[in-house]
Amino acid sequence: MKAVMVMFDSLNRRMLPPYGCDWTHAPNFARLATRTVTFTSSFVGSMPCMPARRELHTGRYNFLHRSWGPLEPFDDSMPEILAKNGVYTHLVTDHYHYWEDGGATYHTRYSSFETTRGQEHDQWKAEVAEPGKPEHVGQMDRYHLVNRKYMRSEEDQPQPGTFGQGLEFIETNKDQDNWFLHIETFDPHEPFFSNQNYKDLYPHEYDGPEFYWPKYGPVNETRDQVEHCRYEYAALLSMCDKYLGKVLDAFDKHDLWKDTMLIVNTDHGFLLGEHDHWAKMAMPWYNELANTPLFIWDPRCGCRGERRGALVQTIDLAPTLLDFFGVERPKDMLGQPLKGAVAEDTPVREAALYGMFGGHMNCTDGRYVYMRAPVDPKNAALFNYTLMPTHMRGMFRPEELQNASLAEPFSFTKGYPLLKTPASGWNQFHRFGTMLFDTETDPGQLKPINDPEIEQRMIRLMVDLMKQNDAPREQYARLGLEEYL
What pLDDT is recorded for position 481? Predict the structure, then answer.
């Protein structure tokens, strides 16, 4: 048995033909849907990038206990477990966060790994002189401006390099058994940088400044700038579609469909002006961000060209892969194998919890989405619990550690006590308030509803999931849920 996971970053399901989009050029995503099962109720867990990847490894939520950071000493890592059970695991990626302080323990859990440099803020090419910023709106970064000088042709860019390495692995090992290949590209994450041939797929009139990298927050740009940026995203999406097609070609060429699982997924979506916001994190996790595309081919059942409505999450992918290879799931891994959901749409859970550390606590049952806002504008009752005191691009600051204490172990830390440090989270979430949506009658989440009975039901589901995941007591206080303990 073999398995391939193709993971994109910030892939919007509403921009994909299998999910109803009729204007983007993505024939290979349409082709993918004919060869796999398409999930319509796939949701994120912990956001953003590395918290989601911790879930991919551990099969349990990250955001209840800490923010962005490395894998912990007590974590169960799916690739590492597979490797210890005779399954060769290989990661190819251009996702540069793996090589920062806050992600440095992930790639070494695989049997081997390869990387391609140059995405976003990657501190890659060394030019001391300032590059000079072109006329632009949104963001623009010196490292990106330097790096893109070295990727004039498509072949020089990170995504083609990443897929090339993945395809090389397939060609080399197609006749071997017991391996898992994880192909992961940072695209179509911003900046939406692509060559002209992809931009030409989306002709439109625009003579404004460069705009392919929105700032996280409210939309302040003109209508034509917003439209242009959406086309820039679409152009990069079409590039992703091309390289996805090469993986599908390899499956066809070598008849990998007979014994090789294929998972195509993402960590989250991206707002392109919806809800009058750009990007993520500066607003609640609306469904444009949280309801993600997910495609799975499982050769054990052979289901293809079908849709599934089971409520699934990122935490289910690790158990699914362990189950596929016949490896026992650790007791601390709370996600569920999706074998039954793929084959027969067997329900996996009644409700799902998701969010970002310090933000809204979100709960959905597949129809209703309940976003519980912090009751304290300063988010004072919030702490990081970790043995790896590392942020995204640096260690914890001395002032953070001066007020640290040693906390008792949680149920999943295998007896390890943890460092407990005060944290602030993202305080702007308080201004959005608590919201309840019926996505059946309001799929765009434009009109919050007021229904006390449904809200109480969603609160009970939320609290039950928090208890199952051994959430810290102060999380209940932060959200005004102490009475439910």
Answer: 95
